[in-house]
Amino acid sequence: MMLSWRSPAAIFMSFFSFHLSQLLFSISLSAVSSPQPKFRLILPVFLAAAAVSGYLSAVSFCGLNGRVGFKGFASGLFYAFLYIYKRRWVLNFPNIQRPPFFSFKMEIPSATARALKLSAAAYLFSSLLLVLLTERFIFAPPIGSAAAEINPSEPLLAALEESSPTSLLKYLAYLDLCMVCENNVDYWRRAALFEESGETYRRVVAVCLRPLEQIASNLGQTLEVSSDGGKAYQKFDQLQPSTEPQQNSKCYELINNFQLYTWSARAIASLTAHSRKEDRFGVAQLSGSNAAVISTLLSCLLAVETFMGKKTSLQPSHPLMGPAGIKWATLSTGRRDVRTGKKRGGPLYSKADAMADVLRSSINCIVCAFHDDMLTNAKAGTLEKDWITSGRPPFGSREMLLQKLNLFLDAQAS
């Protein structure tokens, strides 16, 4: 006779089987826990009762669906073996009427062994979790599928644009984009970014430049840096002790997320450098993205260097004259900010220094790829027009960005 799972008879049978399993299990535990158990006779009965109890418990809750009964049987049998191995029926009573010193002395070996076990387990699971969280996730359809032929970049762009800013999915998407842009393993995915319409390339540039623009503008607001007529100056003279922790907390929130910023900088710099030879349709040059990329990277580098205490004002006089009457200006190496210099050993300074190194490497990557073009523009006097955006940068001024770009060109030439 077949019974419906929601019928009263089925509910009664489930209730009865569950309590029957608990009764069998209780009887088997009582038999094993007796003062003088006969193990040769009781242990097989205990194993069978525990296994049948697990089977009935699983069936009473889930019904006869697939291998649920077998899994319950195996779980009960495993628990029975564990119970016998650990001798759980033996109760350990602590010693009484003993001085505290001797009690503490007797418990030191067991406490040490338990602490070592817990420490080893915590270390192992934290390492496994770190490996799982940092494992690269590939946001791409399988090779040969219809989605891979039509638009293989859509899953990656969807994760970059639609996921929340602090989600793990966004971090994994930026890591995947960085690996695609830097390495030649997934060359077909990088080639798909330079599709003919240029829409995919513009979306990638937008998602990479957005966090860099945010940190540059937010650092400028936090440090209260103003720009006027091409000169940048700092306003935070002598902060009171009551306001300094608040500023440090804001800076910590910005710099602490530096991993996302470094992946963005590395990805867009590598993609821009590869566009020199791989952009068959010229979407990077026609869209003006190269100027936006180099301007944002330079502005972000100036903001980070200002936070580190470096002087970023323009050189007021005696510009260096180059070939064809070009005026080469250099950044002033004036007095560093004393407050930031005192924090060199702090965590904020080390993270800012690491981020500045990544930004310099990213700018050098682009300058190395377009060095001949930039030199040609510099000799023609169109370097600022072709490689610096016409709008106001997130930090600093266009003159400061041009000076910084000239420094990178000089370093590349030497």
TrEMBL record:
It is found in: Nucleus membrane; Nucleus, Nuclear pore complex. The keyword Disulfide bond does not apply. This is Nucleoporin protein Ndc1-Nup. One of its GO terms (molecular function) is protein-macromolecule adaptor activity. The chain crosses the membrane at residues 41-61, 68-85, 115-133. InterPro entries: Nucleoporin_prot_Ndc1/Nup. Belongs to the NDC1 family. One of its GO terms (biological process) is nuclear pore organization. It comes from Corchorus capsularis (Jute). The keyword Protein transport applies. Its main location: nucleus. It is a multi-pass membrane protein.
